[in-house]
Design a protein that fits this description.
The protein is mostly helical. Helices cover 65% and strands 0% of the residues. The chain has a domain of 97 residues.
Length: 160
């Protein structure tokens, strides 16, 4: 065969098919998995943060209402509220049986540099003193310290 005959038998150059976007390459699957994992961790983290501060927010709202109210037994209600919050955030065995001196020591231990001696004395003797004898500055200070203590509480304990 002659060379021109061979050249005439050649076909034109044909291009390969276009690359399809499906099925995805392994790199895309890894990227999608990482994105889903990241989004899942973010959602779980946000949910846990919201759950963590749920009881604290409720207690802070209750303290605000108690602070505005003109109840005569506000000191006892405040101490009860603090104990309820402590029961939500610490194991029941640790908190439920605490009385007077142990309760104030517990507040001191769990609230570093929050409580003043006067506030702790008011909480300790709250059931035995007339709330009218406490001036408004000390009352406001006690409410503010209680709010600070609630804001720094750890996550809720499993008390089931």
């Amino acid at each position: 065969m002659a060379k021109p005959e061979l050249l005439s038998q050649l076909r034109d150059v044909h291009l390969p098919q276009d690359v399809s976007w499906w099925p995805l390459a392994i790199g895309w699957w890894v990227l999608i998995a990482l994105l889903l994992l990241g989004i899942s961790f973010f959602i779980i983290h946000r949910y846990n943060l919201k759950k963590k501060f749920h009881f604290s927010r409720l207690a802070l709202n209750e303290i605000s209402e108690l602070e505005k109210a003109k109840e005569s037994d506000w000191l006892i209600q405040l101490e009860t509220l603090l104990k309820r919050a402590a029961l939500c955030h610490f194991p029941k065995q640790q908190v439920a049986a605490l009385t007077e001196q142990d309760w104030t020591k517990f507040l001191l231990d769990t609230g570093q540099n929050i409580w003043s001696d006067q506030s702790l004395a008011m909480l300790k003797d709250g059931a035995y003193r007339a709330p009218k004898t406490i001036d408004n500055n000390h009352k406001a200070s006690l409410f503010e310290q209680s709010k600070q203590w609630l804001k720094q509480l750890p996550e809720e304990a499993n008390n089931v």
